[in-house]
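Help! Submission page says 'invalid entity' but I think these are all valid:
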Amino acid sequence: MATTINADTSDGLKLTADTSGEIELQSSGSTKVTMDTSGNLGIGTSSPTNKLSISGNESQRIDIANTSLTDAGEIVSFQWDNNADFTIQGRDSAGGFKANWYRITSTATDGLADEHIWYTGSSTERMRIDSSANLLFNSGYGSVATAYGCRAWVNFNGTGTAAIRGSGNVSSITDNGTGDYTVNFATAMPDANYSPVVTLYSDKTGAGIFGLIGGINALATGSFQIDTIASASSFAYFDTLIVSVAVFR
Amino acid sequence: MRIVYKTEEGGVAVIIPADTIEACMKDIPTGADYHIVEDSEIPTDRTFRNAWTWE
């Protein structure tokens, strides 16, 4: 293999290998950087498989520094450690955590992601997607905890020509009769063990109306039924101005 | 728009769409005789709601 080093006023310094060769940079008696014949550059590997391949042990990272910041040593680093955890983090010149950072944790045996964790500040966990696909965050809970979402909601007028004011994951309301409605889900629940919460409001006063009761029945994956009842001297089905429904599971 | 159909008990049920009529066609019971009507065709007086019929 013929290698030439050439310098001229038009092209600057050129290190040239012949068509069959690669270029290696060595220090302390071993190759540290390799550029193969395809132009792939390897650091810590003599067989780069991509445009840039970097290989090393746990203590090695890819660091990108911005020297114009207040702390001249501020660095964003990417690390893939011996536990198969992948971390993106900001560090200061002393090597401590500096900015928000993010880690994908994995089992070392399979290398597949088990958890995604977001941190702020030094090492305060703010949000996580765990291995069971639960989303955990601290939004006034006092700690990072699983958030259980509202899977469907609807606000409708049960009087006059019944009408939906707003909704989520509800395809329609069926008006079955006085104080009798069916909530139909746009996307069905995985089972019928969900928990609907119903609150009612009526602008009617007097006429023996002492309270309103929102009952539920016929829970199915695709729908459930609501009975709105006024408690007076007797209990009777009653149309209310606001029927507010939230479904949790 | 609303979808009206006769219930098995002989009454009338009215489907109120949250979005489009097409999205709630699945909410019509299988085999039910239904009609798509304008909102204005539905009575606003519900005093005798359970006595409604559809011809």
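Support: the input was valid. A stray whitespace character was the problem, and the output above is from the cleaned input. The radius of gyration of chain B is 11 Å.
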